[in-house]
Amino acid sequence: MTDDIILANDLSKWYGEIIALNRFSASIGKGVTGVVGPNGSGKSTFFKIIMGLVRQSSGTIRVAGEKPWNNPKLRKILGYVPERDIFFPWMTGEEFLVKSARLSGMQTNDAKKKAKELLEIVGLAEDGGRRIYGYSRGMKQRLKIAQALIHEPEIVIMDEPMSGADPVARRKIMDIVHQIDASGRCVVISSHILYEIERMTKNVILIYRGWAVAQGRVEDIRALMNMYPHRIRVVCSNARDVAKELIGMNWVKRVGVERDNELIVETSMPNEFYTNFPKFCVECGVHVDEIRSLDDNLEAVFNYLISRRLNYAAGGERE
Amino acid sequence: MGISPLTYTPWSGTRMGRLKNVLRIVFEEAKIRVTVWSLIIILITYLLVYINAFYQAVRPAPIEKYGYVSTIGNLYLYMMLLSAYLAFNIISRDLKNGSIILYLSRPITRIEYIVSKFLAVCFHLSLITIVPLLLVYIIDIASLPQSSKFITEASKLLLPLIGSALLMVILFGSVTIMLSSLTKDGKWASAGVFGVFLIGGFIAEIVGSALNNNYAYLFYLWNSVIIVVINMFGMRISPRSPPWYHLPWYYGLSIIIGAIVLSFSVVYWRFLRREGIVA
Q: Do A200 and A258 fall within a single domain?
């Protein structure tokens, strides 16, 4: 196995006239990788292609060096937590896990042993004997994770595992993801809630309308963004007067007044800004209460790259 | 408790091959289906078959008359009812509750899944046909005079009985799988079973009668089955039976094989050509 466990190249997928993936390219290695994008951006389709549940319309994909479509050999090393429920609701949690293990090829005794172990790991040991239809959303999500892990896969694909889970379950799921990561497995996890992904990994793929808008470590994406306007919120006294002075500086591209005491400064030279702005404040006698980069979180990176990509696709100038 | 290598005990068990994969799914399906309701249905069916057997047994020398045509006819009806029940949830249920993804994300090919489901349906249909049919046969033999003529006659019936039951099991099994794979809503699949085996038959009978064409009757699958049973397996029937019962056996067999091939083609298309099954 190379460093790139999952390698997608120019992957496109059409459902009739609807495009789910649009020349999507990405490479995923060991550890946790987050796939972030709004609903309908193509995350689930990408995961289904990885799992061999659907076939790409064009492009290539290799998972552990193998083509995934209808490849049962590959699915021995893949674990899948789908977005939707996959249960037999009349079964108990334990019965469901035993069945999942049996379908993975385990003998009944091994399956029962593993089911108990996994129920313990996902925090459902006490509820394993209850019927699934009585489970809460969070419990169902954890049971889905357990079934994905029961055959000890090397690659775990988790599609929106925290969707609908309560805060306690979310915390538990994050904990489980960290533990899977610590066990040296490859985890690919999707979410449309960015802070969740940020708390589990710094390695992300940003996807929007089937495009891989960006991929890499958040810090790398951040560095990429330094080439483009950087937004900084400045809370200060007399914001309008400060804005008039700032617009004349060559290290400022645009200034907007949000409130009487708040400015949004856009700069293409963030280093210059952070060097010169303190001097500027001293010279002009500006009292600054707060300076905060608006682009420091994943959400800002995500929104920024999407708008840049859309402008580019629409034939507009790159900013 | 965590998923670190220390607490996550490595699994050292063996994985099984394809055939065992298939048999495992069949076994799991058999377990799921044998619920209280299905047991009640099977018991009622057995009871009906026993009544039928009793009726046959008290008739004077039934085997020397017209064999088991009426018994096979009853089984066609029972099989239709059980098929409707199975079509309701054998694949439709997996599509509805998403468990199709559970199967297809495991080391199981789509072909294995289809074959397993088909064998599971066949297992249940056999339970309601071949087993009671043989029981009827044994009861009849035990209740009639043990003459050499009778034994010769009785032995001639074994092939038509088993042959017709197997033919119907495969036919009903394939159509059931097809209808169940077409919809998430099990009641449409069940309605489809009645549509194919009953309403389709009425239409064929009406068309055959209106056009005065014996071949049109072949499209009532029961007619095709009985033509094979009579003309291929050699079961005797009343001389007053309809003229299309005397059509060559390969006409009936062609229609049955056509229905089976068509059913599997639809299932193949649904699972391997159309990915919407999990989309």
A: no
